[in-house]
Specification:
Elements (H helix, E strand, L loop, with lengths): L1 E9 L2 H10 L8 E10 L4 H4 L4 E8 L2 E12 L2 E9 L2 H10 L2 E16 L2 E8 L3 E10 L3 H13 L8 E2 L3 H7 L1
Antiparallel strand pairs: 1-5, 1-8, 1-9, 2-3, 2-6, 3-4, 4-5, 6-7, 7-8
Length: about 180
């Protein structure tokens, strides 16, 4: 299984919160997340995107999570492996010893929910704005799953022009 998602930029996150609540889909309280992104030393970010393994250490509340992501067909269709770690700083030191460099930090506030069989993440990303991610773990073709997600999102007035096909790391890098 791999994670497949559609990410859309929101002009007004409260509108989508209200629309989701109207169909009995409620989001969690906001959680602050700090994502530290790592790439193998010597690799160029632009050339590596979509081809190489990216590693992430996410710090939120009392929990730290280590994640490996490798793109399959696009940046939003990834093989993803995660595990909880005891120390974000110790993990960062290990990654550096293994030849990975921290290339950026992404700060955001996230609210989560589940609706229509999808995992939802409403994100306020520092320096980028508001986004809604619709995710699912699947073995299907990413294009087909993403097309179904987009049909569902259109029911909330979201259009294809709102879709963002890059991860937050790429959006920040390109900024």
């Amino acid at each position: 299984m791999h994670e497949i998602e559609v990410k859309v930029r929101l002009n007004d996150s409260q509108t989508i919160i209200d629309q989701l609540a109207a169909i009995d889909c409620h989001l969690s309280e906001p959680v602050t997340q700090k994502d530290r992104i790592f790439l193998k030393a010597g690799l160029d970010y632009v050339e590596a995107r979509g081809k190489e393994i990216f590693l992430r250490i996410r710090e939120q509340a009392e929990k730290s999570i280590f994640t490996l992501k490798k793109a399959k067909t696009n940046e939003l269709d990834c093989l993803e492996k995660e595990l909880v770690i005891d120390s974000a700083d110790e993990m960062a030191e290990i990654l550096e010893l293994l030849g990975y460099n921290q290339i950026m930090v992404i700060n955001k506030t996230r609210r989560k929910g589940k609706c229509a069989g999808y995992n939802l993440c409403l994100d306020e990303v520092e320096g980028l704005g508001s986004f809604l991610e619709v995710e699912v773990l699947a073995d299907e073709l990413a294009d087909e799953v993403q097309a179904r997600m987009l049909v569902w999102l259109k029911s909330f007035g979201i259009s294809e022009s709102d879709v963002v096909m890059q991860g937050y790391d790429t959006l920040i890098y390109n900024k």
